[in-house]
Design a protein that fits this description.
Helix content: 40-55%
Shape: elongated
Number of helices: 3
Distance between the termini: 35 Å
Radius of gyration: 19 Å
């Protein structure tokens, strides 16, 4: 299925994709940053946005009814595979700078995002 990634939606701290399926002539998307797979769709952008919000509202309602804490999107914990040599080099550089590995990587990523 050919899709075109257009943008994202935001609602109650959750982010969802906005994609358009050319063959199906409809919008669809999925919620990002959580392990649960939530998808939504609509024939128009307004329908897509309404289904996205309904998906989030249903998830939060279900969590409340089941007395389960909703998963926080983009929790701030990121596990990456970078290879042992790069890992070692970054750790040594962080040590030279007098920083923790986490702090060193966080600062490097913040520089890239500016």
């Amino acid at each position: 299925m050919k899709t075109i990634n257009i943008d994202t939606l935001e609602y109650k701290g959750y982010t969802g994709t906005v994609e358009f399926s050319v063959p199906d002539k409809c919008f669809h998307g999925r919620v990002l940053g959580i392990t649960h797979l939530f998808t939504y769709e609509g024939n128009t952008f307004d329908e897509l946005e309404e289904d996205f919000k309904g998906c989030i509202d249903d998830y939060l309602s279900d969590c409340e009814q089941e007395e389960v804490k909703p998963q926080k999107p983009f929790s701030g914990t990121l596990n990456i595979r970078i290879g042992s040599e790069l890992h070692k080099n970054i750790a040594l550089e962080a040590r030279k700078e007098g920083e923790t590995l986490n702090s060193f990587i966080k600062k490097a990523l913040q520089k890239v995002m500016l």
